[in-house]
Each structure stands twice: as C-alpha cells, then as structure tokens.
Amino acid sequence: MLSIEKAFPNRLCGVLRTEDPEAGFQACLAAMEGGIGSIEITTTVPSCYDMIRGLRASTGDSHPIGLGTVWDPGAVLEAKDAGAAFVVTPVVLPEVAEACRAHDMLCVLGALTPTEIYLARLAGAKLVKVFPVAPVGGVGYIRALGGPMGGVPLWVSGGVGAADVRGYLELGVKVVGLTNALFPADAMARRDFDAIRRVAAEVAKAALPD
C-alpha cells in the first residue's frame, strides 16, 4: 500500500469524469504534463480500468492513478489488477474499506459532516474526502473542522476552483481534488488540451511551498 505522500506527491489530484474516454485519456496526459501529481479515473468513465492501464503505460508509472466513485467492494480487486494506486468512494462505505484492507490498497472514503468523517476513519479510511466541499463553505468549512478534527487527513473535492488550491493547502489539507476546474466541459468538448495543461501548471505552482 502506498502512503498518502507517495500516492499524492504534490497534493494535487485531477478527477476525470467524462463520457469520452479518448478525450479523457489525452486530458489526463495534459494535466500530468502541466504538473498534476496524481489522477483519479471515476468508474463512470467508459473503460475506466483500461484507461488506468493505459495511463500507467504511457507515463512509465511516474504518476499514481486511482479509481474513484467506487460503490462496489468488488471494484477494489479490479482496480488493483489494473494497477491503481488508490480507491476513492463518494460516501462512507465500510465494505469498500474492508476490501481495501484485504487487497492492501490505499482507501479514501467520502464524507461531509463531522460525524461522517469520524465514521470514515473508524471504517478504516487512511484519507477522508470531504465532498462536496464548496457548497458547504469551502475553505471556511475546512478551517472550522480543523479545531476538533485537526488530526484527520483530509482530501477536499467538489466545486474546488483553481484559485482555492493554496487556501486549502495552507490549512493542512493532504489532497486537493480538481474536477471541472481542471477538466472544464468546454475544453473537453473542443479537445483543448493546452488549456488543461495551462490550468494544471497554474495550480501546480500554487501548490509549491514558499
């Protein structure tokens, strides 16, 4: 099992959700070229396991690739067989955490409220994904959680903009997940991978320590 630090080397993860796997594959390559350290391919992407294999082959395993939007514990073994480095759920699913333990996979469980975050950790999540973070206050919400839950390793996702990255990282968030901010629908439709590369470079620069 990879550590959080190795799975997310620069604390940035691009989250791909698309119905066009060919464009998605090229978009992920552009994001990694721009400076995004890790990529999550959601199970909603057609041929998601093949895409994980393809990205690993194309990058020489230089960037950890994970499987997201996992509801079924059976997907954990498929993810591992494809070479995924981590598994992400949208909600607290103890059965997925148990499958991750059985297959030695880094487990990220989704949660939103303090109670859900606690239950995610209790279930065995190494990292808790606060989702969707933007509608409940974004940086301010994470700051409020920091008092009672300051020791919990958090990933933030859901409505995170490029301009928000630095603020989250300064609060000690372990991973910032970028979906629409990194892979905007218009750029994907136009296959404007240069635009994706530019956004990636911008957020990668924001993630650098002072």
Strand and helix layout:
Layout: H1 4-7, E1 12-16, H2 21-34, E2 38-42, H3 48-59, E3 65-68, H4 74-82, E4 86-88, H5 94-102, E5 106-111, H6 114-123, E6 127-130, H7 139-149, E7 154-156, H8 165-170, E8 175-178, H9 185-190, H10 193-206
Parallel strand pairs: 1-2, 1-8, 2-3, 3-4, 4-5, 5-6, 6-7, 7-8
Helix pairs in contact: 2-3, 2-10
Would you write up a description of this structure?
The protein has 210 residues and is an alpha/beta fold. The protein has a single domain (4-203), classed as Aldolase class I (TIM Barrel). It is 45% helix and 16% strand. It has an eight-stranded parallel beta barrel with strand order 1-2-3-4-5-6-7-8, surrounded by five helices. The longest helix has 14 residues, at 21-34.
Would you state the CATH class?
Alpha Beta
Work out the oligomeric state of the chains in this entry. single chain
Taking all Cα atoms into account, the compactness measure Rg is 16 Å
Residues in helix, %: 40-55%
Q: Classify the fold: give the CATH topology.
A: TIM Barrel
Counting helices, strands and paired strands, the structural category is alpha/beta
Shape: globular
SSE order, one letter for each helix or strand: HEHEHEHEHEHEHEHEHH
Per CATH, the superfamily is Aldolase class I
CATH A-level architecture: Alpha-Beta Barrel
Question: Could you say how many structural domains there are in total?
Answer: 1
What portion of the residues fall into strands of 2 or more residues? 15-25%
The order of strands across the largest sheet is 1-2-3-4-5-6-7-8
Helix count equals 10
